[in-house]
Amino acid sequence: MITIVAPHEKDIGFPVKRLLPSAQQRHLGPFVFLDHMGPATFQAGTTEGDVRPHPHIGLATVTYLFSGAMVHRDSIGTVQRIEPGAINLMTAGKGIVHSERMPADIRTEAVLVQGIQTWLALPEPDESSAPQFAHYAATELPNWSQHGLSARVLIGSAFGLTSPVSTRSPTTYADLQFDAGTRYELPASAQELGLYVAGGSLRINGMEVAANHLAVLQHGASHLLETGAQPARALLLGGEPMAGPRHLNWNFVSSSLERIHQARDDWQNGRFPKVPGETEWIPLP
């Protein structure tokens, strides 16, 4: 049985459609958070769309853009611009602070910014690991194309290809672009998988899935994917089921509620590391 998750829309300085967590689906494999950001433009000479420094524990953030650019800065000294097709992977482990800001050229040229941010829950032994950051250029990620379907493998293995992006548990993440009139049978998988329709619409085993909806696929079954008269774009995501539950509270993910309470107290009292060159911060809600 396929479960359809509708987006929860909000404005956090730019429009966001949130699919995970939801009432119908708390997670898919290690994916515990899925936001579709934008599309939006941001006025020159302002800080519209900037995300001020904020903390994370117990997760890895994955940023992937369809258009525009952003600049990531973090408390381990990273400064990294990300552009479409690339991957920013920040592993928070025991704790990291970062900001995400719109570059001046993107504002001045009124470039549309649009992309996907996801969080991966870390396996319990890695929740207390040292924070890390890795950037993978679009040219490093493998691409596959056949019979009207093109795929970029972002994380894990799919379509006979394997991404160089390293994660802490078996994970699948791929960007799929369908021509009009495409038919493709997605083979069965032992992983928990879903398809987020980022643009256009997609039929999955004859069920119409509209844009900005997440289809949670039937475990262990193949699925026929079809487009009609218009092209479509979707993200295939999921992975091996997590061993044990995870608690989510604000920007924190952990197998331990006590650890989350400690992280909240640490942020409130200024015990997290600082982002070099940044003076702003987001207060604890």
Please characterize this protein's 3D structure.
By secondary structure, the protein is mainly beta. The chain has a single domain (about 5-240), classed as Jelly Rolls. It has 2 helices and 26 strands. It has helices at about 105-110, 255-270; strands at about 5, 10, 15-20, 30-40, 50-55, 60-65, 70-75, 80, 85-90, 95-100, 115-120, 130-135, 145, 150-155, 155-160, 160, 170-180, 185, 190-200, 200-205, 205-210, 215, 225, 230-240, 245-250, 250-255. The strands form 6 sheets. A 7-stranded antiparallel beta sheet has the order 1-22-19-24-17-14-13, with no helix packed on it. Strands 2-3-4-11-6-9-12 form a 7-stranded antiparallel beta sheet, with no helix packed on it. Strand 25 (about 245-250) and strand 26 (about 250-255) form a beta hairpin. The longest helix is centred in the C-terminal third of the chain and has 12 residues, at about 255-270. It is globular, with a radius of gyration of 19 Å. The mean pLDDT is about 95. It comes from Undibacterium arcticum. Belongs to the pirin family. This is Pirin family protein.
Number of separate structural domains: 1
Radius of gyration: 19 Å
**What is the C-level CATH assignment?**
Mainly Beta
| Principal-axes shape call | globular
**Unreliable sequence segments:** none
Distance between the termini: 37 Å
From N to C, what is the helix and strand string?
A: EEEEEEEEEEHEEEEEEEEEEEEEEEEH
Main-sheet strand order equals: 1-22-19-24-17-14-13
CATH superfamily: Jelly Rolls
Looking at the overall shape, the CATH architecture is: Sandwich
What profile does the largest beta sheet have? Answer: 7 strands, antiparallel
